[in-house]
Design a protein that fits this description.
The protein is α/β, with parallel strands linked by helices. Helix content is 34%, strand content 19%. It is globular, with a radius of gyration of 22 Å.
């Protein structure tokens, strides 16, 4: 795909938007950028790159003028599908694609794409480690925080790209075609953006739309929503829950990773070694520190009720549970019965604090905080000997933090200062 001298407009300057702008510029396109936030909210290194490369860039809002005349528009996953600049583009007949789709068009190697409501980052990481242990050249990225656009020009056909992909990214694909597509599970998530569960499920299902019978779909046969899509999938199917070559591992994430890796003829001895050495990933049930018998767990990546369910099931009580943030229109009360058996007290934070109090207050004492450091310190004071302080928010982070990583790092900083 030759984009030299084409006018490409980037909408949104999170990590993926910045990466798409750099890729378009590297390939000789005339880049324009429009960003809702003010310039002081954007990575200063990127602002310096914009200045040095004389990129046309507007901050603090969108104007239709920047969209007009574009060959196509590249949008970041965080930009809503019906955002005004995207509507302007569509009304003018200008194609709109996402950063993932844009980068894919230059990708020379096979792709393993992993999606689902929970477990994406863990499975993506595990698949990457298995492939690397087998001697393959691997790129691990996507929604995991490492945009494909920043790396695609360094890849060759002998690589395998292992990508975590989100429902937001799937909304804006056209030709994206993974050799292996993994759908781990589907539970309520992002209902602040998708109008209902059916729209969310259909966004996830788009991961399979360009696959053929020469490709592979790795599916969770124990998830009814996943299996409801099975009949419409053209690819060969592997049901990972009963993947016999990994039957010694009960963790479904391990079985899904093994099933995906098996497509590349990787034997069980390699993935068994990877699983034995795996110690988890940052911000996902990460043990931070134990102080006076109180253990602190950073589960900042848990932004759904099902992810927090896994955390509560995995840990012993009594738990002081720090949760809250920006609500994604989820039903928190689905965890009420489980929490009543494991949680000593809930410390609610952020915009969702009131809703959390309403959801759990009849069963569990809820204490609301507006300052994160006070919430963490208060949790420590109330945990008691052999207690656990769990940060597992069920919510997005953007009301108080830049992202879930920022939230997790702040939690660890405060804990390490106690």
């Amino acid at each position: 795909m030759d984009i030299k001298n084409l006018i490409i407009t980037i909408v949104g300057l999170a990590k993926s938007g910045q990466a798409a702008a750099r890729l378009a510029s590297e390939l000789g396109a005339k880049v324009r950028i429009t960003e809702m936030a003010s310039a002081d909210k954007v990575n200063p290194d990127f602002i310096e790159w914009v200045r040095k490369n004389n990129i046309c860039c507007e901050f603090g809002g969108h104007t239709e003028q920047v969209i007009q005349g574009s060959s196509f528009v590249v949008t970041s996953p965080g930009v809503p599908f019906n955002a005004q600049p995207l509507n302007w583009a569509r009304a003018a007949g200008i194609p709109v694609i996402g950063e993932l789709e844009f980068a894919y068009r230059f990708c020379p190697c096979p792709i393993i794409a992993v999606t689902g409501s929970n477990g994406k980052t863990t499975v993506t990481t595990l698949i990457g480690r298995i492939l690397a242990a087998s001697g393959k050249k691997v790129f691990v990225g996507g929604n995991i925080g490492n945009p494909l656009s920043d790396h695609v020009m360094k890849l060759t056909k002998d690589y395998v790209a292992v990508l975590e992909v989100s429902s937001f990214q799937m909304e804006t694909i056209e030709h994206f075609h993974p050799k292996v597509a993994v759908l781990l599970n589907i539970s309520q998530n992002h209902l602040d953006r998708h109008k209902d569960m059916e729209e969310y499920i259909q966004a996830k299902a788009r991961i399979f739309m360009n696959q053929t019978d020469e490709d592979t779909a790795v599916l969770n046969e124990e998830d009814n929503s996943v299996m409801s899509l099975s009949a419409s999938i053209a690819a060969k199917k592997i049901l990972f829950n009963n993947f016999q070559q990994a039957k010694s591992w009960t963790n479904p994430n391990f079985r899904a990773a093994a099933a995906a890796a098996s497509v590349f003829s990787i034997g069980s001895e390699i993935w068994n070694n990877v699983f034995k050495e795996f110690r988890g990933i940052e911000h996902r049930l990460e043990v931070v520190r134990t102080i006076n018998g109180v253990t602190f767990i950073n589960d900042s990546k848990s932004t759904t009720t099902e992810a927090s369910r896994w955390a509560l099931v995995s840990l012993k009580g009594p738990i002081i549970w720090i949760c809250g943030g920006r609500d994604k229109n989820l039903d928190f009360s689905v965890l009420k019965d489980l929490a009543a058996t494991k949680v000593k007290k809930i410390i609610a934070i952020g915009e969702a604090a009131g809703k959390i109090s309403d959801s759990f207050g009849e069963e569990i004492q809820v204490e609301c905080h507006t300052k994160f450091d006070e919430a963490v310190r208060g949790a420590f004071q109330q945990a008691g000997p052999a207690g656990t302080v769990l940060l597992s928010p069920m919510c997005a982070s953007y009301d108080m933090f830049d992202n879930f990583e920022h939230r997790g790092r702040e939690f660890k900083r405060i804990v390490n200062e106690l």
